[in-house]
């Protein structure tokens, strides 16, 4: 049979029928209901029987149909994960951590991006809620009331955000900022800038608030400078405002903004760290690649994703979940910090 005949047979529906729990039952000599319990509710049979059923399912190439499983249980086996900006490398490790826990627990993640738009985030979240068991909102740009409304529909957990009555997983930014500003002060810096992120970002507010409080406590002058976007382009565009502010060091909202500013300094002949020290935030992949390598504050990104999914699964199961607990940040010193005037 040539390739055209094979294609015709495939188009005519001559495919092998997918295996069912009845096929597994015949192969193992147990009832279909026993097969169903072994595959959908592990731990309810003795380990030897369950292993034999799972081995048979693997041998036959059986795959659980989440839509079919949803009929008797009301659960789809899927979770929604909605991030504010899919192009932000800070989310790579977070998503991987979330996926790791979901895979270990037999869940599937449906991933979506709101492109920094509250309107798109709201509509996307509402669409996702019709087909998932729960929703993880990461870096949400929605108002508190909107998040609470979404939570009233299906289980919901937020990451990098705090809202009254909503389960949350978030970082403690103070340790990393404290160490960064302490090193800047020891290096002689007394006038610094915070290069801000999106106004709708709760995390941006947290980073600015803690930097401001610590700087004031230590008799350091600090000024907030706006950036047009939390991107390399936003950091580069802010170069003129940073230079006009006459500061000796900059703490940026994230690594992308810091890297954009670093590149623009190089293009304009402004030496880093000789004339300006720069600190990023997140410790994304590639932060150590430019010259000079970027000093930054490391976020526990993978742990945020892992804990977020665990918290969401607990909410879905209706059991008691852990109290909100902040995960500590850590300063990572590289080459973009130096003494004033060197």
UniProtKB/TrEMBL annotation:
SMART domains: HTH_LACI. Residues 19-73 form the HTH lacI-type domain. It holds the Pfam family Peripla_BP_3. One of its GO terms (molecular function) is transcription cis-regulatory region binding. PROSITE patterns: HTH_LACI_1, HTH_LACI_2. Keywords: DNA-binding, Transcription, Transcription regulation. It comes from the Bacteria. This is LacI family DNA-binding transcriptional regulator. It comes from Glycomyces lechevalierae.
């Amino acid at each position: 049979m040539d390739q055209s005949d094979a294609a015709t047979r495939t188009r005519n529906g001559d495919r092998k029928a997918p295996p069912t729990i009845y096929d597994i039952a015949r192969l193992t000599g147990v009832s279909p209901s026993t097969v169903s319990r072994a595959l959908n509710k592990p731990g309810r049979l003795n380990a030897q029987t369950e292993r034999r059923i799972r081995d048979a399912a693997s041998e036959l190439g059986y795959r659980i149909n989440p839509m079919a499983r949803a009929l008797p249980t009301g659960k789809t086996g899927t979770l929604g994960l909605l991030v504010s900006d899919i192009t932000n490398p800070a989310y790579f490790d977070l998503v991987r951590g979330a996926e790791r826990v979901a895979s270990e627990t037999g869940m599937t993640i449906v991933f979506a991006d709101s492109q920094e738009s509250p309107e798109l985030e709201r509509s996307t979240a509402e669409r996702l809620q019709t087909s998932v068991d729960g929703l993880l909102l990461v870096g949400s740009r929605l108002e508190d009331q909107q998040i609470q409304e979404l939570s009233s529909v299906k289980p919901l957990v937020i990451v990098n955000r705090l809202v009254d009555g909503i389960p949350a997983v978030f970082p403690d930014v103070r340790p990393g900022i404290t160490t960064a500003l302490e090193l800047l002060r020891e290096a002689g810096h007394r006038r610094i800038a915070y290069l801000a992120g999106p106004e709708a970002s709760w995390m941006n507010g947290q980073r600015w608030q803690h930097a401001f409080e610590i700087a004031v406590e230590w008799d350091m002058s600090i000024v907030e400078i706006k950036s047009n976007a939390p991107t390399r382009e936003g950091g580069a565009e802010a170069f003129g405002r940073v230079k006009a502010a006459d500061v000796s060091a900059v703490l940026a909202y994230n690594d992308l903004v810091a890297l954009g500013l670093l590149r623009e300094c190089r293009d304009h002949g402004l030496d880093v760290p000789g004339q300006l020290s720069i600190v990023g935030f997140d410790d994304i992949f590639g932060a150590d690649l430019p010259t000079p390598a970027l000093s930054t504050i490391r976020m526990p990104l993978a742990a945020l994703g892992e804990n977020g999914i665990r918290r969401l699964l607990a909410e879905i199961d209706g059991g008691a979940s852990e109290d909100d607990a902040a995960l500590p940040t850590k300063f990572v010193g590289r080459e973009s910090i130096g003494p004033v005037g060197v």
